[in-house]
Design goal:
It contains no helices and eleven strands. It is mainly beta and 123 residues long. The strands form two sheets. Strands 2, 4, 5, 6, 9, 10 and 11 form a seven-stranded mixed sheet that branches. The chain is globular. The protein starts with a strand and ends with a strand.
């Protein structure tokens, strides 16, 4: 019954901003919501994660200070706010969810995934 749907991807110039939204349904509380990305020919990379109460969040060093995750439990959505985008941020971005923070940086620990949304950043 768990379903995650990403939206908001697109093409932007370097230095631009995008907001990616993950709509969740059937996700039990408490949850951890993670964002990952995958560039062509590369593995799936951790971007950031947040817990349902919003009192815990972690980010990859590569995006820290540029990306922020927020959760709106009333709307069952998690938003990835991306600013200062760089060409190396180009990837398909996925939201995912799991219970507990153990191994939160590893995609293999997340049992549920959305289908992804493409982000392309040009120089």
């Amino acid at each position: 019954q768990v379903q995650l749907v990403e939206s908001g991807g697109g093409s932007v110039q370097a230095g631009g901003s995008l907001r990616l939204t993950c709509e969740a349904s059937g996700v039990p509380l408490p949850y951890i919501m993670g964002w990952f990305r995958q560039a062509p020919g590369k593995g799936r990379e951790f971007v950031g994660a947040i817990n349902w109460s919003g009192n815990w969040a972690e980010y990859a060093d590569s995006v820290k200070g540029r990306f922020t995750i927020s959760a709106d439990n009333a709307k069952n959505t998690v938003v990835l706010h991306m600013t200062g985008l760089k060409p190396e941020d180009t990837a398909v971005y996925y939201c995912s969810t799991k219970s507990g923070t153990a191994a939160y940086v590893y995609p293999s620990s997340y049992p549920y995934w959305g289908q992804g949304t493409q982000v392309t950043v040009s120089s």
